[in-house]
Amino acid sequence: MIWFTWRQTRTQTMITAVALAALGVLLLATISTITSLYAPVAVCKSDCEGAISTFLVQFEASTAFPAYLAAVGAMYLLPLLLGIFGGAPMIARELESGTHRLVWNQSVTRTRWLAMKLAAGAALSVGSTGLLSWAVTMWSQRIDSASQDRMIPLLFGSRGVVPVAYALFAFVLGVTAGMLLRKVVPAIAVTLAVYIGAVVAMPLWIRAHLISPVHETIALNADKIQGLSLSPDTGQMTVTAAETENAWTVANKTILSDGSTFTGPADLSVCGPEAPLSKCQAWLGSLNLRQDLLYHPTSHFWPLQWAEAGVFIGLSVLLGAFCFWWVRRRIV
């Protein structure tokens, strides 16, 4: 059974290995560039903002930046490819061609057959994605340290253990879709849609609530005002304050002393289109406005990583258990 499983999965295994090797060569070829550009930051002892800013500007103009973009894209693409080309056809191909009747009438039971298939596919998905995630996380350490932006939603899902959980979920999702739809192409389409939906929904609506964010209410000074929006007709005003540095800001509201959101009306004599900005800032300062913040600091990176990975691993376990039940009870 092990040899048979290897014969069926060896093509996708070799393709995955070649793709990982190619990306690994790209990362190795560009690491020296990052190390060289980061040298002034590494030796900086105090007031390093200028050195960090210069490093980030030079990095974006260097040959390592396309590799950085490719690495981020690969961390999202690899789990999806493993799901649609590894998971979706696994059972669907047998059901669509009718060969499951022959396979499951041999000495190997359908439960053992499914267990071996799931184990092999999960090992390939977790192993390859884990290796790539480790390589990308290590390669981008200096960039993440300088930019302090690994908490932002786009980068968060391409670091740490979360991509590994994505890969496991995508693979088992593909297996489940193929088992239910019994055809490869529709299973691929459903896997693609559900995976993208889950990965997009997580940072938009779920991730911020996996652990409790930090809640702060601080005085809003004029130097913290980042933007103003004013309607001259109604006097409605929106004040946008600067977000917390080195953190993922979940909510950022400007409120009055009673806790209600500030929307104006503005005093158009000092905040109108013709009034100088200094007068408007002084008027806003007299209102005792406050900034109401919800954010996840960098210290929440690993707790959020494990919490989100746990969600997708839990979904994978439930889908896997459903596959065993369905194969044993419903497929004939």
Features:
single chain; 332 residues; mainly alpha; 2 domains; 5 strands; 10% strand; elongated
Give an overview in words.
- With 332 residues, this protein is mainly alpha-helical.
- The protein has 2 domains: 240 residues, no CATH class; 68 residues, no CATH class.
- It is built from 12 helices and 5 strands.
- The strands form 2 sheets. A 3-stranded antiparallel beta sheet has the order 1-5-4, with no helix packed on it.
- It is elongated.
The coarse silhouette is elongated
Poorly predicted regions: none
Helix-strand sequence: HHHHHHHHHEEEEHHEH
Instruction: Please give the radius of gyration in angstroms.
Output: 26 Å
| Classification by helices and strands | mainly alpha
Overall pLDDT: 89
* Helix segment tally: 12
Percent range for β-strand residues:
5-15%
- Helix content class: 55-70%
* Overall number of structural domains: 2
Distance between the termini: 21 Å
Q: Give a short account of the largest sheet.
A: 3 strands, antiparallel
